[in-house]
Each structure stands twice: as C-alpha cells, then as structure tokens.
From TrEMBL:
Native organism: Streptomyces sviceus (strain ATCC 29083 / DSM 924 / JCM 4929 / NBRC 13980 / NCIMB 11184 / NRRL 5439 / UC 5370)
A GO BP annotation: carbohydrate derivative biosynthetic process
Keyword Glycosyltransferase attached: yes
Gene3D superfamilies: Glycogen Phosphorylase B (3.40.50.2000)
Pfam families: Glyco_transf_4
GO MF, one annotated term: glycosyltransferase activity
Record-given protein name: Glycosyl transferase
Ranges of residues in domain Glycosyltransferase subfamily 4-like N-terminal: 14-124
Keywords, alphabetical: Glycosyltransferase, Transferase
C-alpha cells in the first residue's frame, strides 16, 4: 500500500507527534508498504543528513518559526502537499494533525479522490495560551 503521512512535526524535531509519525513510517516499511512523509522544512533548511534516518522519502514544505516557540516550525500553505500525494500515487493519506499541513493534506486527498484517515495528538489550545 502506498501511504502518505502528512505531519506537522517530524525528526529532527523531538516531540510526541514527530516520534509517532516516524514510528508509523517504520512500521509501514517493515510490513512492506511504501510510505512517504510530508513535513515542515527544518530551521536549518535542506541539507545532507537532515532526513538520513528516515525510513522513507520525506518531502519538506516551506515553514516559519511559531512566534513565542521558535523551535516549532509552522508549515506555509503549499501545493507541494497535493503534488506529493499525486506523485506518490497514494492509496491512502494519513493526517497526523489538524493544522496547516493536515488541512492541505485533507483537501488534496479529497480533490484526488483518495481516502484519508486523521489522528489528533496535540493540545493546540494549550499552545495558544
């Protein structure tokens, strides 16, 4: 199965969402599936090794630091999400959060007629305080 994992956080970020997205990708690869991760660009930008430990390809979307939490990157709306879903020929889209990339992933999957499943792991209201 070809799965696109759309996540607001992925290593090198160190948090629960990044860890769960990484483990999901690893489990899919271990079971013979073909995942692709779509995640925000890192603060250091693209470079050798930034995704070297990922078990599958990673598409990075332009991002900016979250005001007050510069270590958290917020993806900018981008057509790269729908393009990645289409080019990967996804059978399903896994939405790892309901924020900018999650909404773009949901819209891209719907437009392409691809089923999507969503999980919610972050207290966004807590971040807003």
């Amino acid at each position: 199965m070809r799965v696109v994992i759309v996540t607001e956080s992925f290593p090198p970020d160190v948090n629960g969402v990044a860890h769960c997205a990484l483990q999901t990708a690893r489990h899919l690869v271990d079971r013979g599936h073909l995942p692709l991760v779509v995640a925000p660009a890192t603060a250091s930008g693209p470079g050798p090794g930034v995704d070297a430990l990922a078990p599958c390809p990673v598409v990075r979307v332009p991002s900016l630091p979250l005001p007050g939490y510069p270590q958290v990157r917020v993806a900018l709306p981008s057509r790269r999400v729908a393009t990645a879903i289409a080019e990967h020929r996804a059978d399903i889209v896994h939405l790892a959060s309901p924020f900018v990339l999650g909404v773009r992933g949901m819209a891209g999957a719907a437009r392409l007629g691809i089923p999507a499943v969503a999980v919610y792991q972050t207290d966004l209201a807590g971040y807003a305080r």
